[in-house]
Amino acid sequence: MKPSFFLADMISKTKVDGFDIRTAGHEYARDLSDHPAMLQGQAIFARLEPTRLLLWARYEEMRCRGLKGALLFAFSRYGIIPEEEPSKELDLKMSQIARSETDTYIHHELGEAFEGKKIGDEWKTFLSCLSHNRTELFARSVKDILSDTSENGMLQYIIKNKREGSLGFYIVFLGGLRKIVFPEIPKAFRLFIETGDWGLIEDARKAGYKTAGDYIEKLLTLYRGGSDNTNISESIEKEILGRLL
């Protein structure tokens, strides 16, 4: 709910589904926001540098802690193993992965735009009434899952193009309340590793979309039914979070 800025080299500009996709390379200045992609009106800004830094952080985590599972799976699909030492070659690989993964984040924003249009401006008004606590985090998490699981969203793009590495990174970065809202996808991913069956991921996507949509409707129903919007956070805590957490 605050302004954000960054100053960077624009390395490409394309159009997808009526949206201007502007991809930024080297960044000279920015605020604390490190989102890989952002939606503003009919423009989507994709940022390679923050994406690359996120990947490096996860690579170091994998090496230092000996992590396996989704993180090892994701990097292995791009030909990177924990034993690989930092080098110019690895740095080039990271840049290539960042460019590839940026495409998935662009599709998150496309899903965000598509679902946002369906819900309408009422959602923004609703968010502005929330206290800056976990009720707002929950509402934003639900909208993120709705966007990811949309027919126009990130997971559909991953499934359609059978991007195993991107699926692994999706699980890696799925945390907090989003993981609680979307429990189907980690379970489906564990089975996917064994079977390679993309149908499992598609079924999870559809289930996640329905769950997120149901939560959106519950949240807006509470908002519409409240005579005093200052108490909306309390209603969400009582009616939803108290039962979910």
Structure description:
With 245 residues, the protein is of the alpha+beta class. It has one domain. Helices cover 64% and strands 13% of the residues. It has eleven helices and four strands. The chain has helices spanning 48-65, 69-76, 88-119, 122-128, 134-149, 154-160, 164-172, 176-181, 184-195, 198-225, 232-244; strands at 6-16, 19-30, 37-40, 43-47. It has a four-stranded mixed β-sheet. The radius of gyration is 19 Å and the shape is globular. The protein starts with 5 loop residues before the first strand and ends with a helix. 34% of the residues are buried.
Which structural class matches the secondary elements? alpha+beta
User: C-alpha Rg, in Å?
Assistant: 19 Å
The residue-averaged pLDDT reads 93
Note the overall shape: globular
Order of helices and strands: EEEEHHHHHHHHHHH
DSSP strand count = 4
- Across the major sheet, the strand order is 1-2-4-3
Span of the ends, CA to CA: 26 Å
How many helices? The count is: 11
Number of domains: 1
Low-confidence stretches: none
Beta-strand portion reads: 5-15%
Major sheet size, sense and barrel closure: 4 strands, mixed
Helix content: 55-70%
What does this entry show, briefly?
This protein is an alpha+beta fold and 245 residues long. The chain has one domain (52-244). Helices cover 64% and strands 13% of the residues.
Fold topology:
Layout: E1 6-16, E2 19-30, E3 37-40, E4 43-47, H1 48-65, H2 69-76, H3 88-119, H4 122-128, H5 134-149, H6 154-160, H7 164-172, H8 176-181, H9 184-195, H10 198-225, H11 232-244
Parallel strand pairs: 2-4
Antiparallel strand pairs: 1-2, 3-4
Helix pairs in contact: 1-3, 2-7, 3-5, 3-6, 5-10, 9-10, 10-11
